[in-house]
Design a protein that fits this description.
Structural class of chain B: alpha/beta
Shape of chain B: globular
Low-confidence stretches of chain A: none
Number of strands of chain A: 10
Order of helices and strands of chain B: EEEHEEEHEHHHHHEHEHEEH
Oligomer: heterodimer
Radius of gyration of chain A: 18 Å
Number of helices of chain A: 9
Helix content of chain A: 25-40%
Largest sheet of chain A: 6 strands, mixed
Structural class of chain A: alpha/beta
Strand content of chain A: 25-35%
Mean pLDDT of chain A: 92
Strand order of the largest sheet of chain A: 6-7-8-3-9-10
Strand content of chain B: 15-25%
Number of strands of chain B: 11
Mean pLDDT of chain B: 89
Shape of chain A: globular
Order of helices and strands of chain A: EEEHEEHEHHHEHEHEEHH
Strand order of the largest sheet of chain B: 7-8-9-3-10-11
Radius of gyration of chain B: 20 Å
Distance between the termini of chain A: 43 Å
Largest sheet of chain B: 6 strands, mixed
Low-confidence stretches of chain B: none
Largest interface: A-B, 33 and 34 residues
Distance between the termini of chain B: 28 Å
Chain lengths: 251, 277
Amino acid sequence: MAAMIEIDGLDVTFRVKGHEVRAVQKAGFTVEAGESYGLVGESGSGKSTILRAICGLAPVTGGTIRIEGRPLGSRRDKAFARKVQMVFQDPYASLHPRHTLDRILSEPLAIHGLGDHDRRVVAALESVGLPASFRFRYPHQLSGGQRQRVAIARALMLEPQILLLDEPTSALDASVQAEVLNLLWDLREERGLTYLMVSHDLAVIDHMCDRMAVMEAGRIVETLERPDLLAGRFRHPYTRKLFEASLEAGG
Amino acid sequence: MSLLEVDDLEVRFPTETGMVEAVRGVSFRLGRERLGVVGESGSGKTITGRAILGLVRPPGQVRARRMLFDGIDLARLDEHGMRRLRGQRMAMIMQDPKYSLNPVMRVGRQLTEGLRLRERMSRSEARKRALEALEAVKIRDPERVYDAYPHELSGGMGQRVMIAMMLIPGPDLLIADEPTSALDVTVQAEVLKILDALVRERGMGLIFISHDLKLVSRFCDRVLVMYRGRVVEEIAADRLDQARHPYTRGLLECLPRIGGPRGHLPVLTRDPAWEEA
């Protein structure tokens, strides 16, 4: 069976005022069905750009992206949206401020001509641990953690198989981060989801993912399995820096 | 004598739904050391910093039994007296260079504005001082940065520019509000090194506000843990792993660790009693 996500020789190049910025260069990795795969690196290393390229939000200038063996063309159709969904970093920016949760969550249903929206919206709220009574609230009435739960619920409305998670907990306090990571953990177990997760925090990636790629300046500099990380079996100096920064905990 | 003595500080904001007590009876002393203030968003750590500098705007109300800075009672100082201290002898580095630098003013002019106004320094003299400050924060090409607009700088450079700006007058007390939260680990280390050198070499007192317990435990000497406007625990930074308060313990335990157990992370169960602790 083909891998869920297969990325090969991916180049993303932005053209700004005559300059070329090569945001991703020759990136390649595969994610199996039901796996959780991590991308770590500094800001500007190209990790989020890879997620955006998969969604058709960044200019792919070379290489291929395959989902379940089928190469993606230049446009993303409705079938793609039903298979792949993204959760963005900042839950203050990713939810429409003047739409109620009901409208935010039922929009994908309307676009895809799915009925039964009452039941589905309430079920979606409950599946991310929010009470049904939140249905007609606005995003500004929610805390950051609650907003991120709504963003996850929205991504799940079309029952996709793949979630692209772009720093889903970076904007949250530590205790709220733990709650959202637990939710993501449960959802993957219950639904057999495949995750591709981006974070600058190696400990978060280690907790959630079995395999990971370390990125620097647009390139994948190292790929690791979880036991390699714990045992310190990595070669790249940047991986070491990230590793040391996450080890120096108070406990 | 301590550099700063805060005794029973309270900050309140009247809102439509009643009085919000953002800081409730915070007391601490600061010497020429690195004091960490940690807590989650809404715990009152930033407001505490702003209150010390007299930056809480009405209708916010600040009250303290005593707030002594180098023998001067800040609680009794009028705005004129405060302005003479603020910027000169006590300064604050804000969290995000994107919002704290003037986007339509070149870096050089922002750096020299204070010198030209306060010390009536000549343009060339002020420029020299500013370039020195940029060098002190390890900016490689100070001339270029001096002539740049903030949007032409990366986050790390912007943060260093803000630190340079606060350092030009050589303050005795620096309040740094999440100065490295927007930065990558590699740049973070450089910024911390600069702050550390200032404490050691100039004998400055530093209040380091952060939500990041790991960072504070390795960088500071002492840590105040805040919860809902109160200090619930004060502890030596290198002994944070022996913290006693369940909130501090909970904050440490809910962080994922490399090689730690998979599955559910412990979550914080908030005890109403902590609010009165």
